Amino acid sequence: MLPQQSEFFAEVREVDRDNEVNRILWAFKLNPFEKLNLRFDATPEEVRKQYRKLSLLVHPDKCSHPQAASAFDVLGAAQKELNDEAKREVLNAVLDKARGDCGLGEEVRAERRKETKHDAAVALAATLHERGREGVEEDWEKTDAFHERWKLKARDVMAKSEWRKRKLTKRVRVPG
């Protein structure tokens, strides 16, 4: 490799590191899956592998970004939260609510049913699928489009939950 090429690739790698630090620091603060850039159905093994990969990328000794240490700490906290069974259980309950597993409000599944109620393409796919409409919806839930909608809904549910928690905490602290 020519010296100019190696310098170029070193700069590209540094830009990738900087971009990853920024992505981590700007990730939705209440969701450790987003901090680690993982799907919500990630296994503990996938969490471990992704943490290792990202931590090597943004490690303060390897990355010159001024906030690399903060990003590295955020990754560590996210991994710790996902490895804690009790916290993971609470997080999964919130994510299930956002997905629509609890039957509460207009979650992603309910919104999808409403949107596609009169969709001819979905109706045709349901007649052709061996499991009917249920099978079509299960297939849709494996797509990136579903996961992106689920992520946005989860942000909303988590933010509302955190707001309620802080409001209750403030009420309890204030003598009345």
TrEMBL record:
Signal sequence span is: none
- Please give the InterPro entries that the UniProt record associates with this protein: DnaJ_domain, J_dom_sf
**Where in this chain does the record put each J domain?**
31-95
Official protein name in the record: J domain-containing protein spf31
